[in-house]
Design goal:
Bound molecules: nicotinamide-adenine-dinucleotide
Strand content: 5-15%
CATH architecture of the largest domain: 3-Layer(aba) Sandwich
Shape: globular
Helix content: 40-55%
Number of helices: 13
Number of strands: 8
Distance between the termini: 18 Å
Length: about 300
């Protein structure tokens, strides 16, 4: 793919986005207001390309690496770019300021996607001259290993911008979904939130340890979830499929949902207890090391999915 891509923000997510676009053949130019972030970003990109190559998932990591450039000038990152992926701090004022700087640099047909995890695009694009070209393209960390991208248009985003972004994401090997409306948490974090809220409640009420709740997902639900979603899961969990499953089990799920009609904040006591438990049992206080362990497993899972024709 020959498109030029501009990345704004060279932190964790911007660096991973650079891998996504460069490995698909795009020329990538990364801008950050802090040039000190360039060296760590370069290192992250080079190391991760090396790991993809070691597993046979990338042929020429050096050629991919050479397609990524860095610049302290926003104009240089956007020059000739067909698409811009913004990945700066998750603060409304920062997003607003960055989009106001991007706006006058947009040429006709250029599209800008924001990586924001939860701020609706309408809150930082409303007054822009080119607001029809802006939307949210929310990745999952790290996007070069987890392909899902939530595309969330603002009310004024052009349909053609949505279509362009969806096609671009597919072409570079991501897995886009369209969120029809600016709902808080989009789809992914609403689903994750439903599970987390229930997990905290079960934990604080003493029904299970944190490790046993984690185990329920990693050795139970999660095994299926890496290749099928909740609807497909229940379709196969009843002899005649999803409608029969609903007939049999909808009353149970309604009763569970009704028992949660008064949501409360996660209890501080439970948070403290879970932290002690996790530090002792799972990550032994070394979060950066555990993140590397997680990413190696994600890489192996991605390779398995590719080999199985699932990605
Ligand atoms: N980390 C995650 O798990 C994750 C997942 C999905 C989406 N996101 C979203 O991606 C975005 C980036 O997150 P991150 O984890 O990479 O953050 P980060 O702190 O690692 O990186 C942010 C980068 O933006 C730069 N920056 C800040 N203000 C800027 C400005 N005005 N102009 C140019 N550069 C600026 C910083 O120097 C930094 O390098 C956020 O909106 C976040 O919500 C993060």
């Amino acid at each position: 793919m020959q498109q030029k891509i501009g990345i704004v923000g060279s932190g964790l997510i911007g660096s991973s986005w650079a891998i996504v676009f460069a490995r698909a053949g795009c020329e990538v130019m990364v801008f950050d207001r802090d040039p000190e972030t360039f060296e760590p970003s370069r290192r992250y990109i080079q190391e991760n390309l090396g790991e993809l190559a070691a597993l046979g998932m990338l042929k020429d990591p050096e050629a991919v690496f050479q397609r990524v450039g860095f610049t302290p000038r926003l104009e240089a990152a956007l020059e000739e770019a067909a698409y811009v992926q913004e990945s700066v701090f998750e603060q409304l004022e920062v997003k607003r300021e960055v989009f106001e700087r991007i706006d006058p640099l947009l040429r006709p047909g250029m599209i800008v996607g924001s990586s924001t995890s939860g701020i609706p695009a309408s809150r930082f694009t409303q007054s822009l001259s080119n607001r029809q070209a802006c939307l949210i393209a929310h990745p999952v960390n790290p996007p070069h290993l987890i392909p899902l991208v939530e595309i969330v248009p603002a009310p004024w985003t052009d349909g053609s911008a949505v279509e362009f972004t969806r096609e671009l994401m597919e072409t570079v090997g991501q897995s886009p979904i369209l969120v029809n409306g600016e709902i808080e948490g989009f789809i992914l974090n609403r689903l994750q939130g439903a599970l987390l809220n229930e997990a905290w409640w079960l934990y604080q009420e003493g029904y299970a340890t944190a490790d046993d709740i984690d185990k329920t997902v990693r050795n139970g639900l999660g095994l299926r979830w890496s290749f099928m979603g909740p609807f497909q899961t229940i379709d196969l969990n009843s002899p005649k499929g999803i409608a029969e499953y609903a007939e049999r089990l909808a009353p149970l799920y309604l009763s569970v949902a009704r028992s949660r009609s008064d949501p409360q904040p996660w209890s501080q006591e439970a948070i403290h207890k879970a932290e002690q438990e996790l530090r002792q049992k799972r990550v032994k206080g070394d979060i950066p090391k555990s993140r590397i362990w997680r990413d190696k497993l994600l890489l192996a899972l991605k390779k398995w999915k590719m080999d199985a024709g699932l990605q």
